[in-house]
Amino acid sequence: MDVKKIMLLENDKSFQILLKEQILKCAPSSILTVADRKSNFLKKINWFFPDLILADFNLLDYSGLEALLYVREHKPYIPFVFVTNEICHNDKISKKVLEVADGSFFKNDMDNLHIELKKIMEIKAAKAHKGAECMRRQYQLKLTIEKTIHLLEASESFSKKEKVLSLLKNLDIGMEDEKIKKN
Fold this sequence. Notes:
The chain is of the alpha/beta class. It has helices at residues 13-26, 38-48, 64-74, 92-100, 113-154, 161-182, and strands at residues 5-9, 31-35, 52-55, 80-84, 103-106.
């Protein structure tokens, strides 16, 4: 498993130690940081830039759900996994929460941690590859539009030339606006 930086959102000190030990067994070169409350989490996520977040569902002054929603809104590329005994997989609300998270496992099932983390990171890598391919195609399309605009502007006048130019320019602007939204 090629996880570099992992953030633990956990307030139980003994479980922090256990979790760190298990992670370092399967990913010995990982760098870990721990947040045990909301203020620590919000501060550390913005300077640590984790590759993975492992979070308990219930914390002292914050919930795993709140943290998950923050990550999905502000840093959606970071995989978020619940490590807890608080989620009931049969509860409808819990099932919805788990659908938004990238995974979950129970604290008493630490022996399978490395298997679950490997699956999650493989999915992350596949998504990153797909995203990069999509960006490459968008870039190629933008270049094609810009070349076409340039050729049309340099060409002699023909009926509907201005309309075609206007459509292409609007398409180019729309692509730029969409790029800004994603960043």
